[in-house]
Automatic annotation (TrEMBL):
Coiled coil: none annotated. It is a multi-pass membrane protein. This is Serine incorporator. It comes from the Eukaryota. The keyword Transmembrane helix applies. The keyword Transmembrane applies. Its main location: membrane.
Amino acid sequence: MSGSSEAVEVKVVDNSLSNSEVVTQEELTGSSELYSVECLAQRKKSLRARYTYGIIFLLTNLCAWFVRDYGQRVFPHLHNLQACGIGGHDCFRTMGVLRVSLGCFIFFLIMFLTTCKTSKLYEALNTWHSGWWALKFVLLIMSLVVPFFFRPDIIHLYGEIARVGAGIFLILQLISVIEFITWWNNYWMPNDKRKPSCFLGLFMSTLFYIASICGIVLMYPLYAPKASCTLNIFFITWTAILLTVMMVISLHSKVNRGFLSSGIMASYVVFLCWSAIRSEPAIKECNPQKQVNGNGDWTTILSFLIAIGAIVMATFSTGIDSQSFQFRKDEIQLEDDVPYSYGFFHLVFSLGAMYFAMLFISWNLNHSTKKWSIDVGWASTWVKIINEWFAATIYLWKLISPVVRQTKIIDHEEPVQPGAESP
C-alpha cells in the first residue's frame, strides 16, 4: 500500500511539472510573437522615416534655389544683417546657396552623429531616428537660420570643403550604380532555376546597346556639327571607344560577363557624356541650346525641376544602399536589426547637401549663375567628364580584377612534386 501511494505522489508531481512546463512554453511563445510584432512595427516605422528625410532634403534644395534666384527680392530684411555685407550680397546668389547648404549639412551631420551606432530596433536611438519629428523640425529650422549669421569667410571655407564632399558623394554614387548593375546582371543571367530569363536578358542587353549607339550617333550632328568643335568630338569619340572596350572585355573568354552589364554601363556612360556636353555654356556652333533668360521658358523650367528630382533620387538611392559598401556581405540579418544603416544614410545626405550646392553654383564659388539654371559651366562639364571616365575605369577593374587575382594565385602556387611510390 505504501509503495502504491508513493507512485501516485510521483505521478502527481510529474503532472504538475509537465503542466508548468507547458505554461512556460506558451508564455515564451506568446512573448516571442509579441516581440516579433513590435519589431515589425518598428521596422515599418523606420522604413517610412526614409521618405520623410527625402522630403526634407527636397525642401532644402528648393529653399536654396529660391534664395539664389528670388531671395534678394523676397527677403529684403536680410540686408540689415552684418554678416550679409553691403546690400545683402553675401546672403544671396552663390553665398545664399552655400548658407542653405551648410544648414542642411549641419542637420544631417547631427543626425549622423546621433544615430551612427544604432544597430537594434529596440534601442532608444532608433526611436530618435524614426520619430520626434517636431523636435527635428525645430532643429532643421535652427540649422538653416544659424549659417546666415556666419561671416562670409567661414561660408567661403565651407564652399571649398563642399567641393571635396561633393566629389566623395559622386564616388559613392558611382559605386552604388555599378553594384546595382552587377546585381541586375547576375539576376538576369540564365541558370537552372531561371532558364526563361536568358531571352529577356539578351533582349534587355540588346536594347541598352542600341540606345547607347543611337546616343553616340545623335550627339555628333547635335553637338559636333563642325570640325572646329574639337572638344566635343573628343568627348563623344572617347566615349565610343570606352563602349567598345567595355564590350570586348566583357565578352572575353576569361571574363565572360555577357552583354547585359556592359550594355547598362554603356548607356550610363553615354548619359554622362551627354550631360557633360549639355553643361557647356551655350555656343552657337557646338552647343546650340537656348540662352536662359530671366524667367525661363517651360522647357528650361521642366528640365530644372527634373534635375532637382534627380538629385534627390540619387541621394536617396545611394543612402539606402549601405550593403554595397560593406566589407562582409554574408552577414545574416536578424529580426531585431535595423533595416538599413542609419549612420551611412545620414552621412550620404550630408554629402548630398554639398553636392547640390555645387550644382546650384556650377562648382564656381566666385561666379553667380543665371535664374532657372543648374550645373551649367565649364567646371560642371569637366566634373561630369571625369566622373564618366572614372565610372568606366571602376567598371573595367571590376571585370578584370577576378582574372588578375586568379592569375596571381596560380603563379604563387608551388608545383606539387610527385612523391616516391612506396614499395
